[in-house]
Design brief:
With about 270 residues, the chain is α/β, with parallel strands linked by helices. The protein has a single domain (about 10-270), classed as Thiamin diphosphate (ThDP)-binding fold, Pyr/PP domains (Rossmann fold). It has helices at about 25-40, 75-85, 95-100, 105-110, 155-165, 175-190, 210-215, 225-235, 265-270, and strands at about 45-50, 65, 90-95, 115-120, 170-175, 195-200, 215-220, 240-245. The protein has an eight-stranded mixed β-sheet, with helices on both faces. α3 (about 95-100) crosses α4 (about 105-110) and α4 (about 105-110) packs across α5 (about 155-165). The protein is globular and about 60 Å long.
Length: about 270
């Protein structure tokens, strides 16, 4: 009988270099627990990231992984899923990587609905580059770089994912790793594009986020498959509730792999 895979078996010998107290540690733990619970073989899993603190995560998981360029995690993940449809493809990153330079990829990945799980560790700040406001930063957040606040309304990830066509929209909290692991499990089981926003505190540049532990509450509604109802609930929410908000089975897009579409045949087509 094959030996059961344990969460620690998915961890590499590379030690995370995140700041003490960073929520990304808990996200890494929740992900390895989920992979172990599902007993996914390492070679069945691919972790794809862009650039940022959280995007270092592929180095810490003993599976296939790719640390890409800024904002392109979903483009890389989509290409991999198209080429290897049986692979479990997980894209990871932060709010700056995913919603700023990667925002266009985010919207179109939602509507394309490939079978990819996207986990965004959202700390409302650019942590790796010394604390600039990110797309999800509150407009009145004051820092050395924005002494008067940015004055810009924050990006709404759940609302954008829903309106762009994602069939699975959820929010988790790094301070609740067990609850987060359950959401990741549900996201991986879902057929289609799954988006999970993770409230992941940055104690270095956003020390006030330590209070999230007392402020975060469970999502007060049952999961719905009605996008209109989900949208009204998301827009009425203050952003500190967690749970599976919306789930709906939608057609999953996967490029056809016709036998005639070989590289040789494609090359011949250009020569005609």
């Amino acid at each position: 009988m094959n030996e059961m895979i344990k969460p620690k078996d998915y961890k590499t010998d590379i030690k995370p270099i995140w700041c003490p107290g960073c929520g990304d540690f808990a996200t890494l733990s929740a992900l390895t627990k989920t992979l172990a619970f599902m007993q996914l073989k390492k070679e069945q899993v691919s972790i794809i990231s862009g650039i940022g603190c959280s995007s270092r995560l592929p180095a810490y998981i003993d599976s296939y992984g790719f640390h890409g360029v800024h904002g392109r995690a979903l483009a890389l993940a989509s290409g991999l899923k198209a080429a290897r449809p049986t692979q479990t493809v997980i894209a990871v990153g932060g709010d700056g990587d995913g919603f700023s330079i990667g925002g266009n990829h985010f919207m179109h990945a939602c509507r394309r609905n490939m079978d990819i799980t996207y986990i965004v560790m959202d700390n409302h700040v650019y942590g790796m580059t010394k604390g600039q406001p990110s797309p999800t930063t509150e407009p009145d957040w004051v820092s050395k770089l924005t002494p008067h606040g940015s004055g810009i309304r924050p990006f709404q990830p759940l609302a954008i994912a829903l309106s762009s066509g994602a069939g699975f929209v959820a929010r988790g909290f790094a301070g609740d790793p067990s609850g987060l692991a359950k959401l990741i499990f549900e996201g991986l089981r879902h057929q289609g594009f799954s988006f999970i926003q993770v409230l992941s505190p940055c104690p270095t540049f956003r020390p006030e986020q330590k209070l999230w532990k007392q402020q975060v509450q469970p999502w007060p509604f049952d999961t719905t498959d009605d996008p209109v109802l989900a949208a009204s609930r998301i827009h009425a929410d203050e952003g500190l509730t967690t749970g599976l908000i919306y789930q709906r089975e939608l057609p999953v897009w996967q490029p056809g792999a016709e036998a005639s579409d070989t590289l040789e045949n494609i090359e011949q087509g250009f020569l005609v």
